[in-house]
Write a structure and sequence with these properties.
Protein name (chains A, B): Methyltransferase
Number of strands of chain A: 21
Family (chains A, B): Belongs to the trimethylamine methyltransferase family.
GO molecular function (chains A, B): methyltransferase activity
Largest sheet of chain A: 8 strands, mixed
CATH class of chain A: Alpha Beta
Largest interface: A-B, 124 and 124 residues
Radius of gyration of chain A: 23 Å
Strand content of chain A: 5-15%
Oligomer: homodimer
InterPro entries (chains A, B): MTTB_MeTrfase (IPR010426)
GO biological process, one term (chains A, B): methylation
Helix content of chain A: 40-55%
């Protein structure tokens, strides 16, 4: 019998309550690049790490749980029995739901479901030629953009740092904005256990109490490992709070190869497995059956400058492997996004974002953070880049939709109608389908040169600038019950005072 | 016994003479998206087209060959027995070599080999903000860039139209430039049978006579279908000339869905099979065993404007299917490239180029035209875009290199050295590998913001401009025997006079 602060198992809602009006299901094959032999070598690798090197947990609560579960604890370091880890991991659900306050925006995590959230964490924003500290106004405008585009399932969490709000109560402002400006799934704050408890409490207010959010979770929270092989105190505090409340965490090794892991991809992969699985094992000690997501944030540094780099070949390979590994362990996984090192929404930003996003779809990532707006290695949330990424995301969803091959789509009759060397523009088969047959771009231009010149010879960045401004105009606040809004506001005001801001 | 202008079978050189110093072999798995059921529906589809609708050949020579081979000819239209087509197709080699005058640049076509050529066909060029008619000077500079970058196996053929040279003898100037400024494989001219014969003759001069080029071909030529279902006279004239000389043609349905085919992808695929296989069957009537490549140029139009669009989800799906189809028929195939509709080398150019290039690698295309420099739907050859594409190509080759998972790459010792929460920058394992462990960008920037600002805050297009200019400075003319050069020059002068220019 394991003890500790573990509460009752989460009741998994086996009946999918999600209406999934907008949610994407990836029915295309996964691109799997690891042979059975390769997988077994990686498997031996993480076992060796957890057995011989161990993983540090900067948390007495965690260490107590591990000790009680029979794992060998020396100081903060825990040496694991790999078989025990796998037993714990097997307690986690393979798939689960997360509810949004608009049921049409609720999502499913796992299987062939893919959900997409906006960029998370940047202290700066870029609009056109201006790069500056992010503000609450920026945060709100990004939240509105995430609400406007159906291709995004979530505005994410810290879309950008609202530097003009008080630090200690900022989590209240962000959570309130996410809950009120959008009716989609949102991410929890993880700066401290206090912040986590506030986020959970605000979820209870919005969704009708503790039982409702434990029944089907309402937030997803990002718990990063202090890689290599160290879980720090504040992250673990948040992990405890969310897991106890049945709210899923994304247990994420944060690896820039060459800095937080060895420079070789296999080494990074086994380290990632060791870190993720030990974190996930902890969640199942805290609350058996708690929903949890195998996280991956895996790229590399530039070995000349030490700068982080994104959209690299190495990160692409890592992503493809990670998907296969997560499936191997039967866990939903987080990876991918529209990552780039580029300072502006230029060609590099375009190809690096797709260098990450296309493998994201090939790997079938279930929860995709940083899907829109990421610039400059994650330091900047870019308004123009947000639109570039939405375009890429829409294209990917169109591309990863299986072909229907039938008498109708084979269109034999159209050939009879058109004949040799003719054209199909006016054919009946075309006329019946021309509105929906191809993906219609949001941003990309195929204007001929003369028309493009007449329209101001705007490059993609300049067009994206017009697009995000127009889309903000289209924003309509999703309805919210006045009493609920008032209760949320009162909570924010009270807690802000209590936190001394 | 089949008659016609067929010559003796090409002796396939079974021993690979290629040194492949720079050639890329794609050892990663193919991404196959068509189920067996889907493939059999497509198979039934092309059979129905060639049987019931037929394919037109605007060439008496071709019609005679088909008639003599027992196919039903009505006017210019040929109704085929699909089984007979497959017998013909089976005569074509699955793989073959193409020699370059520098043996280190010779290439292999088929299997896991992938060869890359520059953009082909644009009448215009773009340098920075200037878009203008292409000239011979542009052609030569692009040829030099293709020579400089090892990632390119060929400068292609009509890299851009040298509009300042006489039309009737332009093919001589281009072939001479390709043969002398580069020592890589080049493409043949296909404007007419006359041009094809000149190209072949110049190949004989460069490579030591007819027997030498028949033994191992020295050029690859692009033969487009006038889709739907019509092969025109001039293209077929060139097809005859090259095939008789044992020079491979890329038999390519030219399909923009919605214009040259129905709007549905399955219909485009079966049309593509019907067109390609009938053209390939013809090559095997002309010369059994002649090397030939299954070609694909498959994208769609914008149904609102009628403009061609590239890097679309539909073209990506088409490309993935095409690879699978070509393998189904046991043929090497051409597809892919760095296609885009964008007017400049901006974000759209970046993501659209990769939207085509990543599926090109997933599909394992064997001969990849338009790998560098394509802009504005192929109307423009862009100097900056050339550099963007080379960067993408280099990244792809790095990404599609299988992982080595062994004791060394698992780097257990590095963990022992670094410990929990440390960093690997100075670890022995890192120091031994830091120069080569990650892909080093040609163009992409991961500079921090302050350094990027100090360096002029150049976007990718501006950096690419500096790069191509610097690379042109690095160009060194590959050595060429004076007597051969003189013979080529005399041929060009004589033929120009004969052609009346």
């Amino acid at each position: 019998m394991r003890l500790g602060c573990r509460s009752a198992p989460v009741k998994q809602n086996r009946q999918d309550p999600v209406q999934e009006v907008g949610m994407f299901r990836n029915k295309m094959p996964r691109y799997e690049i690891l042979s059975e032999d390769a997988m077994s070598k990686l498997d031996a690798g993480w076992r060796r790490i957890v057995t011989e090197i161990g993983v540090e947990f900067d948390s007495e609560r965690a260490l107590t749980l591990f000790r009680e579960a029979g794992q060998k604890v020396e100081g903060q370091n825990v040496f694991f029995d790999p078989e025990w880890i796998l037993e714990q991991v097997a307690l986690a659900p393979r798939e689960f739901d997360v509810q949004a306050r608009n049921p049409e925006h609720s999502i499913h995590i796992g299987g062939d479901a893919m959900a997409f959230g906006a960029v998370y964490g940047p202290p700066f924003v870029r609009e056109g030629d201006v790069r500056r500290d992010a503000t609450m106004n920026d945060f709100e405008r990004f939240a509105k953009l995430a609400q406007v585009f159906p291709v995004l399932d979530s505005a994410g969490g810290v879309i950008c740092e609202p530097n003009d709000t008080p630090l200690d109560s900022r989590h209240l402002d962000m959570t309130y904005a996410l809950q009120t400006l959008t009716d989609k799934v949102y991410m929890g704050n993880v700066v401290s256990g206090v912040n986590a408890r506030d986020t959970i409490r605000m979820g209870e207010i919005l969704f009708g109490g503790r039982e409702a959010i434990e029944q089907t979770p309402v937030s997803i929270s990002l718990i990063n490992c202090n890689s290599p092989l160290h879980w720090d105190d504040r992250m673990l505090e948040s992990l405890f709070e969310y897991t106890l409340a049945g709210q899923p965490c994304v247990v994420t090794p944060f690896i820039l190869m060459g800095a937080m892991s060895p420079v070789t991809i296999p080494a990074a992969l086994v380290q990632q497995i060791a870190e993720a699985l030990t974190g996930i094992a902890l969640t199942q000690l805290i609350r058996p059956g708690a929903p949890v997501i195998f996280g991956s944030f895996l790229s590399n540094i530039d070995m000349q400058s030490g700068s982080p780099t994104f959209g690299t070949p190495e990160s692409g390979i890592g992503l493809l492997c990670t998907g296969q590994i997560a499936r191997h362990f039967g866990l939903p996984f987080r990876s991918g996004g529209g990552l780039t090192s580029s300072q502006v929404a230029d060609a590099q930003a375009g190809y690096e974002a797709l260098m990450t996003m296309l493998p994201t779809f090939l790997a079938g990532a279930n929860w995709v953070m940083h899907s829109a707006g990421w610039l400059e290695g994650g330091l900047v949330a870019g308004f123009e880049k947000f639109i570039v990424d939405v375009e890429i995301l829409q294209m990917m969803q169109a591309e990863f939709t299986p072909l229907e091959i039938d008498e109708d789509s084979l269109a034999f009759g159209a050939h009879l109608e058109v004949g040799h060397g003719g054209h199909f523009l006016g054919a009946m088969h075309t006329m019946e389908r021309f509105r929906t047959c191809f993906y219609r771009p949001l941003l990309s231009s195929s204007e001929n040169y003369e028309r493009w010149m007449r329209n101001g010879s705007l490059d993609t960045n300049a067009r994206a600038s017009k697009t995000y401004q127009a889309k903000l105009e289209e924003y309509v606040a999703p309805p919210l019950d006045d009493a609920v809004r008032l209760e949320l506001e009162e909570y924010v005001v009270r807690r802000r005072a209590e936190l001394g801001d």
